[in-house]
Write a structure and sequence with these properties.
This protein has a domain of 101 residues. Helix content is 51%, strand content 8%. It contains five helices and two strands; from the N terminus they run H-H-H-H-H-E-E. Strand 1 and strand 2 form a beta hairpin. It is elongated.
Length: 150
């Protein structure tokens, strides 16, 4: 195995999510977008670079990528050992990517319409927050009838 496969990277990403995020690993297979696949591959490559000199670890990774439970447990034990010191550069790099993957997995796409009815010269603001960015829009009434004269 010269290069890491997506299946192997997914196994590594699931283990990293289990270790550092403690949720979201079950969501990984459901919505693997292109952008998310790139992050999973980046995470897998980082771990691959660390373990590829260890023939036993490489063999266990190959078997775990084929969803063999015993090998998956062996890989989990090995990677958790490598990540034991959560302040090491390697563990921090893996955790950062696991957090990014988890963030993307847990985003809910809001395709809803927003309707607001303003009367009698009222003004309204509508907001929509996506990915931590607030989109705020002021409502303008065009061709609205003039308010009644008193």
């Amino acid at each position: 195995m010269e290069l890491i496969t997506l299946a192997a990277a997914q196994v590594i990403a699931k283990l990293a999510l289990d270790k550092f995020v403690e949720s979201g690993a079950s969501e990984l297979g459901k919505s693997l977008t292109t952008q998310l696949s790139q992050k999973v591959m980046k995470l897998g490559t980082i771990v691959w670079e660390k373990i590829r000199g260890n023939a036993t670890a490489v063999e266990v990774l190959k078997e775990a990528a084929q969803e063999k439970p015993e090998e998956l447990q062996r890989l989990r034990n090995y990677l958790y050992f490598l990540w034991k010191n959560e302040n090491s550069e390697f563990a921090l790099e893996v955790k950062k990517l696991a957090d990014e993957i988890h963030f993307e997995l847990t985003q809910i796409e809001d395709n809803s319409n927003t309707t607001q009815i303003n009367r009698d010269n009222a003004r309204g603001w509508q907001t929509n927050v996506k990915g931590g960015t607030a989109y705020i829009g002021e409502i303008h009434q065009h061709n609205a009838p003039a308010p009644p004269q008193q």
